[in-house]
Amino acid sequence: MKKGTKKLNRSQNQDISRDELIFNRGISDFKSTFGSDPDSVIDSMNKNNDDIPNQIPIHKIEIQEAGVVRENIPLRVIDPLFGKKTLCLISKLDIKTRISGQRRGLHMSRIGDIIATTSQENFECIEDFIRKVAMGVCESQESVDVKIKLTAPLPFYEDVDYNKKGTKKSLESINLIYEVTLKNGVSIFESGFEFNNITACPCVQQTFKHTLLESGLEKMEIESLQPLLTHSQRCKTKILIKNYLGPLDVLEILKTADKSSVRVQNTLPRVQELHMVYRAHKNPQFMEDVVRNIASNIYSRFRKKYPKAFITVETDSAESIHDFNIQAKIESSFEDLGKLFK
Questions:
Q1: Could you tell me the residue range of the domain that residue 234 belongs to?
Q2: Does 62 score more than 90 pLDDT?
Q3: 8 Å CB contact between 180 and 187
Q4: Last residue of some domain: 101, 129, 153?
Q5: Residue 2 pLDDT > 70, yes or no?
Q6: What is the DSSP letter of 217?
Q7: What is the CATH number for 100?
Q8: DSSP bridge pairs for 173
């Protein structure tokens, strides 16, 4: 070790506070560069109405949405899936606010400071994080209307049954989507996640069945061949719940999605690969079936917990035998879904 170098042991390293890890670029300060005090400069600008964002614009037209998209935002939050430890998720924020006809523009540095300061804190749930950012943006921009959308991949591990020797591990992820609309101090959330799943087309199976019938096979013989030949697709499916009392129950929504669809898995030993394909082909689904099944099962599971909620379920299917994708989407209130099941 070089002379004068201080050795840092493990216990010392663990005791370092987050404030001590803030980087300082070491650039000369404003006064040494320009010979003027920065506070005096700002005071002079304010007195002379030269704070540009606060000026009245030439055309006094209200702007409904103006803002910024920021990536690589650390989010320190208790695991929204299992709730046992704090994670640091790397998120993307899409921040939009309203600018009145009496203001020229946004104070962008204030939004940057809010993001940096808030992202250093630990939060119980994602809803608390985006609400705090939204409130800060409202105050800093003198606005009453802010919308923030947060997206972040959530990695997690699954056990994969293998054989008598035990299990294998699979690294999975879902893409979290949290959106808050803050208006006049009232927060409305619309949150959920995206995941990948597979479907098997029922059309080919039915065509194959009737082909076998026409060739002379009996129904009993065909039943023994189930599931019949068909093609499969990989889909990206999204589930969003709006107007709920948080925090959102991500784990139970994921379990409900698994009852409604066949989610893909990244570690698949041969027997589990066969089992996954068999499950999808044994219960062939149009993408339209998938969104209906998910909406129905989510309603059944959460109608008492989120009675005033709205649900969005949408999917994008990458067709394996075509060179295009197809989409389906359901948007409905739990109240309207309840009328269908009476």
A1: 185-342
A2: yes
A3: yes
A4: 153
A5: no
A6: -
A7: 3.10.270.10
A8: 155
- List of residues 6+ apart from 18 with CB closer than 8 A: 120
Q: In this structure, are 319 and 206 located in the same domain?
A: yes
Q: Which helix (H) or strand (E) holds 197?
A: strand 186-200
- CA–CA separation, 80 vs 78, rounded Å? 6
Query: What's the pLDDT tens digit per position in 67-78?
Result: 999 999 999 999
Do the domain assignments include residue 33?
A: no
> Which residue, 227, 230, 250, is CA-closest to 239?
250
Same domain, 240 and 284: yes
Same domain, 222 and 325: yes
pLDDT at residue 277 tops 60: yes
CA atoms within 13 A on the CB side of 289: 14
Instruction: Determine whether 302 is exposed, middle or buried from the number of CB atoms within 10 Å of its CB (0-12, 13-18, 19+).
Output: buried
* Integer Cα distance of 85 and 142 in angstroms: 36
* 299 and 224, same domain (yes or no): yes
Output the CA–CA distances (angstroms, integers) from residue 334 to 39, 183, 232, 305, 317, in the order listed: 54, 23, 31, 11, 25
Torsion sign (Cα): 128, 304, 253, 189: negative
Q: Among 266, 270, 338, which Cα is nearest to 308's? A: 338
Count of Cβ atoms closer than 10 Å to residue 196 Cβ: 18
- Give dist(CA 97, CA 140) in Å, integer: 11
CB 245 within 8 A of CB 306: yes
- The model carries a pTM of 0.90
pLDDT (average), residues 112-137: 97
Domain membership of residue 46 (yes or no) is no
Give the chain's end-to-end CA distance (angstroms, integer). 77
pLDDT per position as a tens digit, 197-248: 999 999 999 999 999 999 998 988 988 989 999 999 999 999 999 999 879 9
